[in-house]
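Tokens for chain A. Residues wanted.
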């Protein structure tokens, strides 16, 4: 996600500050939203798909992975780990993260 000052999106925790771009396998440099699962997995919605950050590595889910549309406008993680993604093409879900 680009901040208002056009800087790369990042995650900060304590003394750690990490920034991600498409060069790090983030789906898109513009992140619309972020959700965090109970296991610490970070999910981001972008115009180019759903991104998952787990154990320091990004995975990208797109229409090639049965996401209804690559434009992800909402994401939620259920108590059982199921990820729900609202897209321009409808609702998609992925069991257990």
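Reply:
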């Amino acid at each position: 996600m680009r901040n208002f000052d056009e800087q790369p999106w990042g995650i900060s925790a304590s003394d750690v500050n990490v920034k991600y771009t498409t060069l790090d396998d983030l789906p898109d440099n513009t992140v619309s939203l972020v959700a965090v699962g109970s296991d610490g997995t970070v999910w981001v919605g972008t115009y180019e798909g759903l991104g998952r950050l787990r154990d320091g590595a990004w995975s990208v889910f797109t229409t090639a992975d049965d996401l209804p549309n690559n434009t992800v406008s909402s994401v939620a993680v259920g108590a059982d780990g199921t990820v729900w993604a609202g897209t321009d093409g409808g609702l998609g879900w992925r069991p257990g993260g």
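DSSP finds no helices and nine strands in the chain. The radius of gyration is 13 Å.
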